[in-house]
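Let us practice reading a record.
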Amino acid sequence: MRDPADRSPGPGAEAGEPVIDVQDVRKAYGAVRAVDGVTFQVARGEIFGLLGPNGAGKTTTMEMLEGLHAPDSGRLTVLGLDVASHASEIKEQVGVQLQTAALFPQLTVEELLRLFGSFYRRRLPVAELLKDLDLGEKRSDQSKNLSGGQRQRLSVALALVNDPEVVFLDEPTTGLDPAARRGLWELILDLKRHGRTVLMTTHYLEEAEAICDRVAIMDHGKILDIGTAPELIGRRFKERAIQFDSLDGLGDQRLSALPSVVRVAHEDGSTLLYTRDVPATIGGLLEVSRGLGTEPGNLLVRQATLEDVFLELTGRALRD
């Protein structure tokens, strides 16, 4: 990978301009509005996440930026170039890791890297890619024999063969175990350290919080809010959350009347009380639950998270 100091704006981008610019983009398939008026910008050297459930419009938005689909309306630019009229020029400067990549199963890791590199005028040395992606020991292995984590690293390596300015990663860690997922997080952070701009989609809240500089929360084709994780949380929550297994006989009206409770929410069989005074609320909760002859199970206290933000914006948990 080139040193960050050696990276200059692409041919169509001026310093300070957004590297990715999406303005009021819409895309429908029949009666389904897959993308419904989406607007956002991504700065140079930023890891920007599109966060939302399956069907939110994340992949469709990314595929339009990659030139795979044309929008019904709106404007998309990458590196200062209009995607509609400069698709070929843009493709030389971006790397794409698709959500479901079909790799030639009989080809080895090294053969795949050489094949994909032959598609571009500019390409990184295969030895450098193997080293950077920790695939050196697998260079002679056929892709069909790779583990899930190794296959994902290979997909990212293939997206980097042309030393791109911008990298698109679509659900890059889906299906990976926790260790492999965290290994790929470190790889994505390394892309930023080397001056690349990353646009990624994810439905993992902890992933968005861990590696994204900013996040756009998407649902039903719309962006509901954009910001850093602390900004998104701070706009809505000054309180801490008390979480416990929902109790029969304790309705929202009674819970809202507990000391210092600001709001009540529910998530996957759990009740969430957002409070400005944890001891006072817990004391009240224990008192009313004892009156029912029971006590709250799996009681815990935590800071608000992106999960709470998504629940507040949509009325449901992200994993629903």
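A brief commentary: Residues 178-193 form the longest helix (16 residues).
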